[in-house]
Amino acid sequence: MPLTDTLPSHWKLERKNTGQPVLHTGFGKAFSLEMSKLIPLKPNQPLRKAIGYKGHPLKILDITAGWGQDAWLLAKLGCEVTAIEKNELVFMFLDFLNKNPETGPGNLNFILDDSLRYLKTIKEKKPDVIYMDPMFQINKKSASGKNLWILQQITRSSPEQTSALFEEALKKSQKRIVVKRGKREKPFRGPLLCSFSGRAVRFDVFSPTPE
């Protein structure tokens, strides 16, 4: 199936001369990923606290890569990050950036796969941390909100799929599972250890459960 078949009819996917993919969403709006504008995580930031980073590299599995910003930030800390994305169009953006020496950390690997299927293949060498960012309600007026809205139009998951992914993640992490939520949303039902809140989002930390 061509990648453009995954887009709404008035959207258009093209490449710049540099090879950078650009998505036109109509009405003069265009979207491209610019990881170089992201600011590395500081010690007091909630995501850094939530993953338990203490200055030593962690092995992190991001099972909902999306546009890859969180995976990129975690890799910039020095962690070994594997990020799973099942949508072929989104993966194309991620793969381009990761192969660009100016934007792609060498310790970040994107994989095109279904996350639940991938988790079920893990038998040994479990990651230290499994990171999960399921879809939640967004503010389209903000810059980040627009990017997430575009992502939601391309990739869709049911609550049942999200629940199954979370339950499997609890079995496949050595140290913790971190779930990103809207600040006012309830945490998932599970062995919640603690939470770290920012202005708009919250990171819930869960303890792994034995298989």
Helix content: 25-40%
- Classification by helices and strands: alpha/beta
Low-confidence stretches: none
Shape: globular
Major sheet: order of its strands?
Answer: 6-5-4-7-8-10-9
Strand content: 15-25%
Order of helix and strand elements from N to C terminus: EEEHEHEHEHEHHEEE
Radius of gyration based on Cα positions = 17 Å
Strand segment tally: 10
Please give the largest β-sheet: 7 strands, mixed
Q: Count of DSSP helices?
A: 6
Averaged pLDDT, please?
A: 87
Distance between the termini: 37 Å
What does this entry look like structurally?
With 211 residues, the protein is of the alpha/beta class. The chain has helices spanning 46-50, 69-76, 88-99, 115-121, 143-154, 159-171; strands spanning 12-15, 21-26, 29-31, 59-62, 80-85, 108-112, 129-132, 176-182, 192-197, 201-206. It has six helices and ten strands, in the order βββαβαβαβαβααβββ. The strands form two sheets. Strands 6-5-4-7-8-10-9 form a seven-stranded mixed beta sheet, sandwiched between helices. The chain has a three-stranded antiparallel beta sheet with strand order 1-2-3, with helices on one face. Strand 9 (192-197) and strand 10 (201-206) form a beta hairpin. The longest helix is centred in the C-terminal third of the chain and has 13 residues, at 159-171. The radius of gyration is 17 Å and the shape is globular. It starts with 11 loop residues before the first strand and ends in a 5-residue tail after the last strand.
